[in-house]
TrEMBL record:
InterPro entries: Cullin (IPR045093), Cullin-like_AB (IPR059120), Cullin_homology (IPR016158), Cullin_homology_sf (IPR036317), Cullin_N (IPR001373), Cullin_neddylation_domain (IPR019559), Cullin_repeat-like_dom_sf (IPR016159), WH-like_DNA-bd_sf (IPR036388)
Boundaries of every Cullin family profile domain copy: 485-742
Name this protein carries in UniProt: Cullin-domain-containing protein
Organism: Karstenula rhodostoma CBS 690.94
Keyword terms: Isopeptide bond, Ubl conjugation
Entry's family note: Belongs to the cullin family.
Lineage, broadest ranks: Eukaryota, Fungi, Dikarya, Ascomycota, Pezizomycotina
PANTHER family: CULLIN
Length: 869
């Protein structure tokens, strides 16, 4: 500023001070003339409005103000404006002067307005901007060249602040943007472009370095231009950070040559990781952060990365599915998906990336390879090997697209094929139930663990078992009948369990080997208590699971009834509780009608015990002596199986005891007839052998044969014909009895010559070398075994009963419907007879023809069947 201007300004300041002093002096003087008080306009000096050195006297102001003066009736105080600035700007401060004691009551206090006395600036803002920008520009050059900071950041900040206060913020912003643009478009971009001849990853690294340098330089720029950012850009919804990022994005990242190389560089890092090589985690993480900061992640990086991923996954799926087995492919697919999702989570990629990448993986690896994943042959191999873990991986992979249910057809086919092979395996009929139970346990474990208890697959499992277990085939095993073989074998397996208890359970089905699994690892190492009753009940439950699948329960009923009769009559049940438990299960499963005869069998045994107890008490009262201890079971003919009467000559002592009981029974129960079934009887015989005395538990036929050797020398032979005549047994029954005594594991008799078959020319002697560690020896196991003739007779009887049941069902249907078509009659008959055993369509048609012959129904002209009352 020049000295002349300073002198002029001092003069104005002195004039203003003098004028204010005069005003204050005039305010303290009383109005002696009695005129009206001065108005604010009459006493206000024109400060800063007149040329330099000019003054305005109070008299002139008074004369002018008096023209527009109106006295106040209320004595309001006068207002004197002392706050006007030299440039006539609005007053910034108002002072109020209170009334003093020496003021007259008529004039009252006056209000004093004090205006700003700051002189008008005469500095050119443009010149100030240019002068200040020289320092700022030099500082920016130093910052962009990464030189040492040898200037005051506070001084630069104040300079920018003054520029903005002078109203030059727009120009300062333009110069800053131009400076930054020149730097980014120059040195920074050149450093990145130098890498265009190298790999994409190198271009990416150069970009990341330029981005890091740019962010470092922007810290100083933000400090210097903080006032510009906060006071000018922020109110306009802008920021210095956004402007500088946009410059880097538009000039470097979105450059036509650089953009694809930068994005592909990040994708190449992912490709390196997918190839199994070490991923430059730091570089990739910095790249992702840069994409997020520049707001190019969604529009540039993510689409390109998904495009790269789609190409990779498609090639991977085609290659791996062709080269690897099904379980290996499934494991590789799950591992690939796990790695891809882990990379997304580790590097904090967007949720949209995770969603789209997972969708892409599932589409190419699962949906497009569904036929490969549900291949029946390879799936069957997994089931055959009981590969629980591999099956779980397969199901888990398919369930990502809700395709797990597509395994149902292959699952059901394998079950039906495997089950059918077991059922119709005539070489191992005795092992059928064990194989089916093992298979059922295996499939249940697969369904629970591998298939996560899928309702669809569980239903398929049950339907498959129901299908193959009800398949019938006329074979030698069923004596050319269409009876269900599984029903027979289930009944025999239950008989084995109830006779032998827990000891009879096959090793592969026993829970003893699994007891360690149920022990909690945190508990003490104590042995699990093994309860035989619990084990037997568990086995019975598993057998009932198979039994539920069988439609023709008549076969099971027939064989179970025969086996139960043997167990009750020969007292061979391992546990009475187990017998009752099984009966209760059957009653719950099949109804009271199914078990009515079975319950009557138990009642007959109890009544027989009471009857024998009464008979012995009466004998004691009469002092009757009995040569043998006789026990008789009186059975109801309607409840028990039918047994053929086998002719036999009873020894005299036994016959007399039988006659005594029969006399007692008929005297007590008049009108009843006893039909003795000696084939079901068993005896306890005390025998003296050269090597020790033994007690033999034998059948009645075995006892009759052994009694013939009483009183004979050890080496005396009895021929076959003599034994046949003395016992009166038919040849088949005698052969079976002699074979059990002379050809079995325990041989109280010796056959001459030795051999497995009984011939009419054979002779027999008492075995002088017979011995056994036990005193009481059971040799009557032959009674517990079913003969081929008995088996054939049972099958034929069940088949005949099924025809009668089918005919009765047809009559009931026609009686209710009166008229019915052939197809409807066949379908209804199948539905009604399903639980007892259903004939095939040809069998049903034969029974319809039989009923027509018996005149229970007739076939009308229109093909309808009508009931004849």
């Amino acid at each position: 500023m020049s000295s002349a201007a300073a002198t002029q300004a001092d003069k104005k300041r002195k004039h203003s001070d003098r004028t204010i002093k005069e005003l204050f002096t005039s305010q303290h003087k009383p109005n002696v003339s009695g005129s009206a008080p001065l108005s604010p306009s009459s006493k206000r000096p024109k400060l800063g409005s007149s040329p330099a050195g000019a003054t305005t006297t109070p008299e002139k102001a008074m004369s002018t103000a008096s023209m527009y003066h109106f006295p106040s009736k209320r004595g309001e105080p006068e207002v004197i404006n002392l706050g006007s600035s030299p440039d006539n700007s609005p007053a910034r401060m108002v002072g109020i002067r209170k009334a003093t004691p020496n003021m007259s009551a008529s004039t009252g206090p006056k209000k004093l307005l004090v205006k700003n006395f700051r002189p008008t600036r005469s500095v050119d803002p443009k010149a100030f901007l240019d002068q200040t920008w020289q320092k700022v520009d030099a500082a920016l050059d130093t910052i962009f060249q990464q030189g040492s900071i040898d200037f005051s950041l506070e001084e630069l900040y104040r300079g920018v602040e003054n520029i903005c206060r002078q109203g030059m913020a727009v120009e300062a912003k333009k110069r800053l943007v131009a400076k930054c643009k020149m730097h980014v478009n120059g040195p920074l971009r050149q450093r990145v472009e130098e890498m265009l001849g190298r790999q994409n990853v190198d271009v990416l690294r150069a970009t990341l370095q330029a981005w890091a340098d740019w962010n470092k330089q922007l810290k100083y720029v933000d400090w210097i231009f903080c006032y510009l950012d906060r006071s000018y850009l922020l109110p306009k919804q802008e920021s210095l950070r956004d402007i500088t990022i946009k410059l880097f994005r538009t000039i470097i990242f979105e450059h036509p040559k650089l953009n694809p190389r930068i994005v592909d560089g990040a994708c190449d890092l992912i490709a390196i990781d997918r190839a199994g090589e070490d991923l430059d985690r730091k570089t990739f993480s910095r790249a992702v952060d840069m994409f997020h900061d520049m707001q190019v992640y969604t529009h540039h990086f993510e689409p390109r990365m998904l495009e790269f991923s789609q190409t990779f996954v498609k090639e991977w799926a085609d290659r791996e599915s062709a080269e690897q087995s099904l379980p290996a492919y499934v494991k590789s697919a799950l591992s690939l998906m796990k790695r891809e999702i882990a990379r997304v989570e580790v590097f904090r990629l967007d949720g949209s990336t995770k969603r789209d990448l997972l969708t892409l993986l599932e589409d190419h690896v699962i949906s497009r390879k569904e036929a490969r994943l549900t291949n029946e042959d390879e799936f069957a191999d997994l089931l055959e090997d009981n590969a629980v873990e591999d099956l779980e991986h397969l199901y888990t992979l398919l369930e990502r697209r809700k395709l797990g249910v597509n395994l149902r057809s292959a699952f059901m086919k394998w079950i039906e094929d495997t089950g059918t092979a077991i059922v119709f395996d005539e070489k191992d009929q005795d092992g059928m139930v064990v194989k089916l139970l093992t298979m059922k346990r295996q499939l249940d474990a697969i369904w629970k663990v591998s298939f996560h208890r899928s309702s669809a697959l569980g239903q398929g499992l049950r339907e498959s078992f129901e299908t193959f277990m009800n398949k019938t085939k006329k074979s030698s095993g069923t004596w050319n009948t269409d009876n269900s073989k599984p029903g027979e074998m289930i009944a025999k397996y239950v008989d084995m369990l109830l006779r032998g208890g827990a000891k009879a359970i096959p090793a592969q089905l026993s829970r003893k080997t699994e007891k360690a699994v149920d022990v909690d690892a945190e508990e003490d190492n104590e042995d699990v208590i093994f309860d035989e009753d619990t084990e037997v009940n568990n086995q019975l439950d598993q057998v009932l699971d198979l039994f539920r699948f069988v439609h023709g329960k008549a076969v099971f009923e027939a064989f179970y009834k025969k086996d139960l009769a043997r167990r009750l009559l020969m007292a061979r049940s391992a546990s009475a509780d187990a017998e009752r438990s099984m009966l209760s299960r059957l009653k719950t499963e099949c109804g009271a009608g199914f078990t009515a005869n079975l319950e009557q069998m138990f009642k007959d045994i109890e009544l027989s015990r009471e009857e024998m107890s009464s008979y012995k008490m009466i004998s004691e009262e009469r002092n009757e002596k009995h040569a043998i201890d006789l026990n008789v079971n009186v059975l109801s003919a309607s409840a028990w199986p039918t047994y053929p009467t086998v002719p036999v000559i009873i020894p005299r002592q036994i016959k007399s005891e039988i006659d005594k009981f029969e006399t007692h029974y008929k005297a007590k129960h008049s009108g009843r007839k006893l039909d003795w079934k000696h084939a079901l009887a068993h005896c306890q015989v005390k025998a003296k052998f050269p090597k020790g005395n033994k007690e033999l538990v034998v059948s009645s036929f075995q006892a009759i044969v052994l009694l013939l050797f009483n009183g004979l020398p050890i080496d005396e032979h009895l021929n076959y014909e003599y034994l046949k005549e003395a016992t009166g047994l038919p040849s088949p029954e005698l052969n079976r009895t002699l074979q059990s005594l002379a050809c079995a594991k325990l041989r109280p008799l010796t056959k001459h010559p030795k051999g497995r078959e009984i011939n009419p020319t054979d002779t027999f002697t008492l075995n002088a070398n017979f011995t056994d560690p036990k005193y009481r020896i059971k040799i009557n196991t032959v009674q517990l075994k079913e003969t081929a003739a008995e088996n054939k007779e049972t099958h034929e009887r069940v088949a005949a009963d099924r025809n009668y049941e089918t005919q009765a069902a047809i009559v009931r249907i026609l009686k209710a419907r009166k008229k019915i078509t052939h197809s409807e009659l066949v379908a209804e008959t199948i539905r009604v007879t399903r639980n007892r055993g259903t004939l095939d369509v040809s069998g049903i048609k034969k029974n319809i023809d039989r009923l027509i012959e018996k005149e229970f129904l007739e076939r009308e002209d229109d093909g309808m069947y009508a009931y004849i009352a």
